[in-house]
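Q: How do we represent a protein-ligand complex in a form that can be generated token by token?
A: Start from the inputs.
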Amino acid sequence: MRWSEFEVKPIPRNAKWHELPRGGIIDQPATALAYKTAGWRTFKPVWHEEKCRQCLLCWINCPDGTIVVDPEEGKMTGIDYDYCKGCGICAKVCPAGAIEMVKEK
Ligand code: SF4
Ligand code: SF4
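Then emit the structure tokens for the protein with iron/sulfur cluster bound:
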């Protein structure tokens, strides 16, 4: 499952102070999902499936949980570019050289 499949009620950008939750509390979980957080990425990881050994080291080390894994198969299926920030950790830990960091256009 991708993070973007979760349903979160976003606060409108032009909300008035009295429309915000009292005390500015966060009144629902996972609010970051309402905002695509990959906007500042300068490099992006490109997955080469043919080299992948399905060890899932990238998945366990990704600080943003954006390595997509099929829970039934327990296998990596891709990268969620809506939330990947391009830190490059996945490429660093991959023992097979299956993830390449390329400059964003
Ligand atoms: S570049 Fe960073 S955020 Fe993006 S998938 Fe790899 S480890 Fe996760
Ligand atoms: S770390 Fe590399 S070999 Fe392991 S699952 Fe991720 S891409 Fe595949």
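The first strand starts at residue 43 and ends at 47. The chain has one domain: 3-103.
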